[in-house]
Specification:
single chain; alpha/beta; Rossmann fold; globular; AB_hydrolase_fold
């Protein structure tokens, strides 16, 4: 059961909080946890992130809500990831996050080798409220994902149709290795929809295996469509090759 996972705190500072779950596989998942949720990762989400307890997971939280702009925050995350990739003898590394954590997960392939990054309800740019008083966007190390998303990994993004999300949806770059899916969410969030439909674990695994077609099929009961389906004429991109 989810509540039986042995998740240990390995770092607890004002700069970065890190939890570790040791699985038995050769996969390491870097899971970026929205600190606004408070405390350790929820058991059900941890269970899905670890593939039912099989995969190794490092959970990261940014207590200052700096959106990776904390002093040496990126470097500290990379150091943890490299150390545990070696300890776990991981053959593949995945990034996972939702909300602010989704922003962090999508940014990290620019700083460390990651095979697939999956983000639920990700924002493209940091909100105005997150800019420290007395600073401007130009003072920040990172303020939008256009600066870092590219050919570093395969990216999977699952958005809702809420106005706040829709505005960010159209800002993401279009590329063969960026797969964007949209769900008619109504008043629910993407994580809530996936959880209620019992699809969280399957969606994570399909993305981690880079199975774009199978991921879309899994989401069809929720009315999924791709961003490419609604691009203006001439704006479509080729579908990336996929495994499985």
């Amino acid at each position: 059961m989810a509540d039986e996972l042995d998740i240990s705190v390995v770092s607890d500072s004002d700069q970065l909080k890190v939890w570790l779950y040791r699985g038995t596989s050769k996969r390491l998942v870097l899971s970026f946890w929205d600190s606004e949720e408070g405390g350790a990762p929820l058991a059900a989400f941890a269970h899905a992130a670890s593939h039912g307890g099989r995969d190794n997971v490092l959970f990261f939280a940014d207590p200052g809500d700096t959106w990776l702009n904390g002093e040496r925050l990126v470097e500290e995350i990379v150091e943890w990831a490299i150390a545990y990739r070696r300890e776990c003898e991981a053959q593949s590394v995945m990034a996972l996050g939702q909300g602010m954590g989704g922003f962090m997960a999508l940014a990290m392939p620019a700083y460390i080798e990651i095979d697939v990054a999956l983000a639920l309800s990700p924002l493209y740019a940091i909100p105005t409220r997150a800019i420290p008083e007395g600073q401007s966007l130009e003072d920040l190390r990172l303020h939008n994902l256009g600066e870092v998303m590219g050919q570093h990994a395969d990216y999977y993004l699952i958005h809702g149709e809420a106005p706040g999300e829709a505005a960010h949806l159209e800002s993401f770059p279009v590329a063969p290795n960026i797969h964007q899916y949209v769900l008619p969410t109504g008043t629910n969030t993407v994580p809530e929809l996936l959880d209620e439909a019992g699809l969280t674990g399957e969606v994570l695994e399909r993305a981690f295996l880079n199975q774009a077609r199978k991921l879309r099929l899994a989401l069809e009961p929720l009315g999924v469509y791709r961003r490419e389906d609604v691009l203006p004429e001439g704006g479509e991109t080729e579908t990336a090759g996929e495994q499985g």
